[in-house]
């Protein structure tokens, strides 16, 4: 008796791992969006402000808690607590010391709110990345040096100074020869090309200024 050449395919029962993998694959997008995505500036850890705030609050709370425990144990309250309670009860709200203390506390609170809502790390410039989970930054000093080198390669430029700001780049160049208008046009084109090579997530606006220097 001859065996059939076409044997039936063996079937395998799907395991729990296969089912989880199938569900996970179904949640993934079919095709990632094309082109690089602009990345935001990474957030600073704020270690120094957080440490100072935690130390101050911990010290004040610890001293106050220690005095409360002493009072609960039968000892008299500390003299500084009595003086502080008397000052707060007797001084009016329009007193100079009260207003100064309130202003200092309000300024510190506003400073902490600004630190909490702003990313910080202003010395780092975010770069374009292919995905939202990838971050790349460029140091601001390095970016200034790149643009300065590009400016120095323009014919007629003898000295250049580049400064990065939040939304613009200020470039000051000295012209030894050629007309300032021609040098400015070439300098603008060279700096725009260099900015494209840097691939910044938020390209700043160029502010180019030239001045003739004959001596």
Automatic annotation (TrEMBL):
<protein>
    <submittedName>
        <fullName>Alkaline shock response membrane anchor protein AmaP</fullName>
    </submittedName>
</protein>
<feature type="region of interest" description="Disordered">
    <location>
        <begin position="1"/>
        <end position="42"/>
    </location>
</feature>
<dbReference type="InterPro" id="IPR046253">
    <property type="entry name" value="DUF6286"/>
</dbReference>
<keyword id="KW-0472">Membrane</keyword>
<keyword id="KW-1133">Transmembrane helix</keyword>
<keyword id="KW-0812">Transmembrane</keyword>
<feature type="compositionally biased region" description="Polar residues">
    <location>
        <begin position="8"/>
        <end position="24"/>
    </location>
</feature>
<feature type="domain" description="DUF6286">
    <location>
        <begin position="107"/>
        <end position="211"/>
    </location>
</feature>
<feature type="transmembrane region" description="Helical">
    <location>
        <begin position="48"/>
        <end position="66"/>
    </location>
</feature>
<feature type="compositionally biased region" description="Pro residues">
    <location>
        <begin position="30"/>
        <end position="39"/>
    </location>
</feature>
<feature type="transmembrane region" description="Helical">
    <location>
        <begin position="97"/>
        <end position="117"/>
    </location>
</feature>
<dbReference type="Pfam" id="PF19803">
    <property type="entry name" value="DUF6286"/>
</dbReference>
